[in-house]
């Protein structure tokens, strides 16, 4: 009798995007969008979609930027469990979109459920035209049979694993540090004329 050894299933390691990558992706999405005509309003899906939405709006010269909070994961950590359905908060934040040309932006599409739910909400407000854009699609979570390009208008990049964006942490948020009262000894006054750091470490 022979036995067959089944190799363990390995999950690809998550990839971490740098700000330079985000800038390149948003420029790409802005170019794709403008090629089909400028939108009047950009809507970012909170939280991750708000940052690329603002960047794309600046690149397109669009001043009307709005937001809606829709979440589909239970925590912020890598490979976080998903809720049974995307949850929406404060839909009134979208305001009046009737008759407007709207670009809906998110950071990533996995199953596409969050983007699809938000798209239906925005369409119900009577928009004249609605397009969707994401920085990246995680193909390992995409359900099919339709390809991502059939359901999303503009995609900057495809990946096959979890993505950590520059504004995220790999293990989710850290617990807040205990509050202490600084003393003169702990926080000495800077010397006159001393330069202070102007940039945060983004490595």
TrEMBL record:
Domain Phosphoribosyltransferase: 22-169
InterPro entries per record: PRTase-like, PRTase_dom
SUPFAM superfamilies in alphabetical order: PRTase-like (SSF53271)
A GO molecular-function descriptor: glycosyltransferase activity
Pfam families: Pribosyltran
Alphabetic keyword roster: Glycosyltransferase, Plasmid, Transferase
Renumbered residue ranges of the record's region Disordered: 168-203
The protein, known as: Purine phosphoribosyltransferase
Organism: Streptomyces liliifuscus
